[in-house]
Specification:
The complex is a heterodimer of chains A (220) and B (229). Chain A is an alpha/beta fold and 220 residues long. In chain A, helix 2 links the parallel strand 1 and strand 2. Chain A has a ten-stranded mixed β-sheet with strand order 4-3-2-1-5-8-10-11-12-13. Chain A has one domain: Glutaconate Coenzyme A-transferase, CATH 3.40.1080.10. In chain A, 16% of the residues lie in helices and 26% in strands. Chain B is α/β, with parallel strands linked by helices and 229 residues long. In chain B, helix 3 links the parallel strand 2 and strand 3. The radius of gyration of chain B is 18 Å and the shape is globular. The chains are: A alpha/beta (220), B alpha/beta (229). Chains A and B meet through helix 3 and helix 4 of A and helix 4, helix 5 and helix 6 of B. Chain B: It holds the Pfam family CoA_trans. Chain B: Keywords: Transferase. Chain B: InterPro entries: 3-oxoacid_CoA-transf_A, CoA_trans_fam_I, CoA_transf_BS, NagB/RpiA_transferase-like. Chain B: Belongs to the 3-oxoacid CoA-transferase subunit A family.
Chain lengths: 220, 229
Amino acid sequence: MSEFQPLTRQQMAQRVARDIPEGWYCNLGIGIPTLVADYLPPDREIVLHSENGLLGMGPAPAPDAIDPWMINAGKQHVTLLKGASLFHHADSFAMIRGGHIDLCVLGAFEVAQNGDLANWATSAADAAPAVGGAMDLAVGARHIWVVTEHTTRDGAPKLVEHCTYPLTASGVVTRIYTNLAVIDVTPQGFEVVEIVPGLDFETLQNRTGARLRMLETTHG
Amino acid sequence: MIDKRVRDIAMALHGIRDGATVMVGGFGAVGQPDALIEGLIEQGARDLVIIANNAGSGHVGLARLMEAGRVRKIICSFPRSAGSVVFEDLFRAGRLELEIVPQGTLAERIRAAGAGIPAFYTPTGVGTKIAEGKETRRFGDKTYLLERWLPADVALIEAWRADRWGNCIYRGSGRNFNAVMATAAPLTVVQTCELAELGELDPECIVTPGIYVTRVVHVPQPVPAMADR
């Protein structure tokens, strides 16, 4: 067993933010994805979209400057940046389904080696499922990146051969950022792009539910 | 003279019958027509089908309507939230039917109803539980799901400003489902924070043209609840 430090939630968000190019229109899901907004490089203009009808979403307001009418899809109070626009729900999802959103960063219960995503219900018999906008985002955004812990709290792998939970969408995930590695989903399956310092491939493979391939240039 | 303004909530909701399908605008607490929902509890219609993004929170508004046993079915995308105790209890007890619809499909089904389009193909939900029992068809190299329009008998809307013709504008993130639902029911009732004189709203900026609106009732200055999650 090697000596290594898994990334914190903040570090995972920071790692994702580093890869978002200038000019992209992005939707950030609830959980760790939301934290990505805090780490966007200040020298790039990246426009954040929220399902409830916002483009150009800014940071949270100061407690004494809250506009009660201005919330994001997670129902947190937000601000608008210069250049922002407002629109209704049908337009917002036309933007999503129509392929206009460059990137959606989502959390996941499971990601399969073919890019299948399960992130809305934990069992087929779930009493009262709540899908929200996840299915629309997963099929509509041009790139789907997942950011998640590498395993569940019980140590079960979240990167798997086949999803066991109900699917959100098939074959949509292209990249996964975990607390242990950055992994691309390719036609050949999971391909390791980056490993946290001190963690060896063997250990990473043991915590993953499908075969990993090592990219030639990977350093760890 | 066209004057869609009505004096009070009772007049705004007059004629809503048992068994009606009622759309309720809003996303979380923002844009939710609270006074109309409270009024519907007073009004007394039963056996309602509610179309809304969320299924209420705490024991007020939609949650109170459901708790009073007046809702047969709810059609929504995200029924579960921190405060959705009433929904969860009723659902678990088998006293409330649930139709879960992806949020974009919900918005588009409502839009389609308002636009006279009975069905449409969408990529959302293909290969998932949502697709069970639905027609699919291939266009190019992708598979799409046939979804049907979702009309209602009544739409309850919250606007920021409205005039006597029913032209509406919204505030902040408050247009959400309101601007879509306003088009999709024969009886569209608007609760507005402010009344505007005819001609005062800039035609370039009107979001909901008055043609969609049946009644306007003035409910001054309600501020969306801050704690809603």
